[in-house]
Amino acid sequence: MDVRTFIAENLHLRPAPGVPEIRLYTAHPGSGLARLRTDAPEDLPPYWAYSWAGGILLAKHLFRDPDIVRGRRVLDLGAGSGIVGIAARKCGASSVIATEIDANAIAAIDLNAAANNVTIEVLETDILSGDRAPNVDIILAGDVFYDAELAGRVLPFLAACLSAGVEVLIGDPRRRSLPLASLRLIAEYAVPDFGDGGAQSVTGGVFTLEA
Ligand SMILES: C[S@@+](CC[C@H](N)C(=O)[O-])C[C@H]1O[C@@H](n2cnc3c(N)ncnc32)[C@H](O)[C@@H]1O
């Protein structure tokens, strides 16, 4: 079955937890997600089907302070469901590029963007391997420090983008591989999190990357 059809028929379109301004196709016990295969190089779990604290933190922060993105070109790194990019667009970003390595996430971002009446350019690419900073004003990175190997690639990429003049904002519930020594906390919120295995509330942060 086509991925888009599968998502539309088997996931529920629901308000994002903690960010009622956005609706997302969300997995539930009857979704049967295991029936979906991924073309990604590794066996990626369906991150895109759930709401992660990092993305919720950034989306919440943008709705509190839309000037962060208003009229600016945004890159949503590791977009998952697309919650961060959708929030940016709703808050007035002039353009949003969402990058993902999971083909199923690409389909979900397209559907979620349409469900929220926004347009997002979706790129299925491992942007971390590129040697040039993307042509954007700000990078939003929600919950991309969930494992040490990925964190070891994300930090130098973001640092290079910062050196090239691109602002960087990170949303994260302080997962183990978050490079706190390189970050400055600018806001804190209590948000729901799926990432640690349940729907419990965690206090997480929005951080800038320091030069
Ligand atoms: C924990 S999820 C967070 C998704 C979303 N930002 C949020 O907060 O809801 C991390 C996402 O990063 C994606 N990812 C992992 N490595 C990536 C890479 N090299 N480039 C782009 N996305 C990547 C994964 O496929 C996954 O969807």
Q: What do you see in this structure?
A:
The longest helix is centred in the C-terminal third of the chain and has 16 residues. The chain is of the alpha/beta class and 211 residues long. It has a single domain, classed as Rossmann fold (3-Layer(aba) Sandwich), CATH 3.40.50. The strands form 2 sheets. It has a 7-stranded mixed beta sheet with strand order 5-4-3-6-7-9-8, sandwiched between helices. Strands 1-2 form a two-stranded antiparallel ribbon. Helix content is 27%, strand content 27%. S-adenosylmethionine binds next to helix 2, helix 3 and strand 4.
List the helices and strands and how they pair.
Elements: H1 3-10, E1 12-16, E2 19-26, H2 53-64, E3 73-77, H3 83-90, E4 95-100, H4 103-115, E5 121-124, E6 138-142, H5 148-163, E7 167-172, E8 183-192, E9 201-209
Parallel strand pairs: 3-4, 3-6, 4-5, 6-7
Antiparallel strand pairs: 1-2, 7-9, 8-9
Helix pairs in contact: 1-4, 2-3
Notable traits:
5 helices, Rossmann fold, alpha/beta, two-stranded antiparallel sheet
Residue-averaged pLDDT: 92
* C-alpha end-to-end distance: 46 Å
- How many structural domains does the protein architecture include? 1
Low-confidence stretches: none
Q: Major sheet: size, sense and barrel closure? A: 7 strands, mixed
Structural class: alpha/beta
Order of strands across the main sheet: 5-4-3-6-7-9-8
